[in-house]
Design goal:
Nuclear Transport Factor 2, Chain: A; 33% helix; alpha+beta; seven-stranded mixed sheet
C-alpha cells in the first residue's frame, strides 16, 4: 500500500472514529487553537517533533521508564488493542507501564522499519506508524525469569493543542 493510500485510509478511519466518538472530532479545515495551518517548513518541523516523540518511546522501553511514556499524553487518550477499546487515565497508563517495565528488562527494543510519520495539512493532527522488535527477560509474579520476544506494530495518533503535540490514541497489535 502506498503512503498516499495509507493516508487516505487513515483519514477515512479518523473521520469514522470521530463520528462515533472514539476520538475527538476536529472542526473541518479550521485549525485547533494554537495550531495554525502548516507551512512546508512547519510540516517538516512537526514531523521531526513526532519522530522525536517516537524515539522517546523507544528510549523509555530500553530504560524501563514509565514516566517518559506518559509525557505529553492527552487526558482523553483512547486505545484499541486485543479486541477492546479503552480510555485509560494518565494514572492508569502510568501504573500499567510501571508494572510492565518494572518486571521487564529489554536487551533489544528497536524499529524494524523506518517509522511512517504524517501531519495533516492544517497541522492539527499527526500520526506515527511503527513496527518494533523487542527481546529481553520478564520476571513473573512468582519471581521466575522468562525470555520475552515479540514484534509489534502500532499507530500512535497525535493532536496539536496549544502548540504542543499530545498523544491522543493508539491502535496496536502483535505479530503471531
Amino acid at each position: 500500500m502506498t503512503l498516499s493510500a495509507l493516508a487516505r485510509r487513515f483519514a477515512l478511519t479518523t473521520a469514522v472514529a470521530a463520528t462515533i466518538g472514539i476520538i475527538p472530532a476536529t472542526s473541518g479545515s479550521t485549525p485547533a487553537p494554537g495550531a495554525g495551518a502548516t507551512s512546508p517548513s512547519g510540516a517538516a518541523s512537526d514531523e521531526a517533533a513526532l519522530r522525536a516523540r517516537h524515539a522517546r518511546v523507544i528510549q523509555a522501553h530500553r530504560e524501563s521508564n514509565p514516566d517518559m511514556l506518559c509525557e505529553d499524553v492527552s487526558p482523553d487518550f483512547v486505545q484499541a488493542n486485543r479486541g477492546e477499546i479503552k480510555r485509560p487515565t494518565i494514572e492508569e497508563r502510568r501504573a500499567r507501564f510501571a508494572a510492565y517495565l518494572g518486571s521487564t528488562i529489554f536487551e533489544e527494543y528497536r524499529d524494524l522499519v523506518e517509522p511512517i510519520v504524517h501531519v495533516s495539512k492544517d497541522g492539527t493532527l499527526g500520526w506515527v506508524i511503527v513496527q518494533v522488535k523487542a527481546r529481553g527477560v520478564q520476571t513473573t509474579e512468582t519471581g521466575a525469569k522468562e525470555p520475552l520476544e515479540f514484534v509489534s506494530a502500532w499507530i500512535e495518533l497525535y493532536e496539536k493543542r496549544d502548540g504542543r503535540w499530545l498523544a491522543a490514541g493508539n491502535v496496536s497489535n502483535f505479530k503471531p
